[in-house]
Amino acid sequence: MTEVGTNMKHLCVPREENIEPMRPILGVIPPGNVSDQFFYLQLKFTPKIGHPFTDEREVVVEVPKDLVQRKSESIKECLREVVALGLARSAALGTFPTEAERAVDLYDEDPPIWYYDRRPPVINERSCDHEENGTRAWRIV
After folding, report:
1. DSSP secondary structure string, 28-44?
2. I want to staple 102 with a disulfide (CB 3.0 to 4.6 A). Which of 67, 93, 111, 136 is the partner?
3. In sequence order, what are the beta bridge partners of 64?
4. Residues of the domain holding 104
5. What's the pLDDT tens digit per position in 15-30?
6. Gap between the Cα atoms of 63 and 94, Å rounded
7. Which helix (H) or strand (E) holds 64?
8. How many helices (H) and strands (E) does the chain have?
9. What is the pTM of this model?
């Protein structure tokens, strides 16, 4: 079993040993990431009922591993993914058009999709929509 952070909580998820190539995994980070320099993940935000905006938002985020290392020097190795997810969430919210739409408590979140064997295509297609301390985010339109 592997501990994985989602929404800054711990979730035990069985390790998938025979994963098809090029397939992202929901909420699980398998060994052997595509890059020694970055974590790649996709976040999906669904507005909670009662807010004036109703469209789901998906964002692909590239988080530098050296930034995660600096932010997590005092915590255990297994929690680095939790730090990466927090940095990704912050950068993803920065892609939303107004300040009012950037509060994380306005949304329900799907489990993150971690890309471990390829960069998500949008990264190569255009420049990022938001950058925050070296973490870059692309809205999926």
Report:
1. ---SS-S-SSEEEEEEE
2. 93
3. 38
4. 2-140
5. 333 333 334 444 444 4
6. 14
7. strand 57-64
8. 3, 9
9. 0.72
